[in-house]
Amino acid sequence: MSSPRILCLGIGNMGAALAQTLLRSSSPTTNLTIWNRTPSRPLVQSLVDAGAKFEPNLVTAIAHADIILICLLDYPAIYTALHPVPSLASKTIINLTNGTPRQATDAQTWMTARGAELYLDGAVMVTPQLVGTPHAFLLFSGATEARFQAAMASVVAPLGTALYTGEDVTSAAASDLAALAAMYGMFAGAFVGMGLLQKQLARSGSKGDAKIAPAVEKVVVPLLAALVPYVGQIATAVDEEAWEDNMGNPLGMQLAGVRNILQACKEEGVDGGGLDALASLMQRVMVERGGDGGVAEVVRLVVE
Ligand code: FVH
Question: Does the beta carbon of 37 lie inside 6 Å of ligand 1?
Fold first, then answer.
């Protein structure tokens, strides 16, 4: 059986990494075409040098492809790019563009209305440098797992471990955004902490050569690493509505700690706004239930 003709639509940092990995792992007969809005992007030339075919006309590129792997900045960019394409009849579309659950549903409707045979919505869960390495994993949702395995699993296997999240096409986007929300929440707190460390260095009269990185590496990073499994335990408490289970860390104690951070921010002139919303939610749980339960109940308020 001949190899499927793959079109990588979008050669930004991530699209280029996906295309490079597919090229590296493919047989000499594999037919990999690339398209990018800006043909002069250096990543495009690197891929052509590595054996990809660049097709500047997207209508032609799609007509000659069986599988279209989309990785653009956002969903509006997808519609802008695909607007002139008259038909997607019999095409398999794998969309790895970051977006919302609703955007995933709308894209499925839009693509199938134009004849697409199979639409999978997904996400890449690592940086471009890690694509194709043992650390890489990707999410896919939509169609059925059997269809995903039959049609796509071998094609996307070189990119990383594929996790099929469910037939509901929104499930990959929901999981992707959940992970990113946790990551950005971690950044929000880390930036406040780095501000406090900088103030401490300035207050102690350290010269310009004093850095915050040693404290972050020796104290902040190990604490975060040790607490990662705690997030899973909190999720289990949420599923079980086990609001009274404080896992040895009662909400009252935790809120006192968060208030100390915010107080230090006021005293030192650091913007602690990144933690204000969390403190308010914890305070609401305190008012409703007292401080003996767990922090998991904050999630109940988030969805109300
Ligand atoms: N890079 C990363 O670390 C993360 C890892 C997790 C997944 N994300 C998501 O991947 C999508 C693409 O991200 P990217 O890193 O490739 O982003 P850029 O390098 O900025 O490339 C963007 C591509 O989108 C094209 N594009 C933008 N607007 C339009 C448009 N209106 N019409 C057509 N194409 C458009 C852009 O083309 P050009 O600027 O080169 O002409 C690039 O091909 C993204 O969803 C991340 O959240 C990456």
Answer: yes
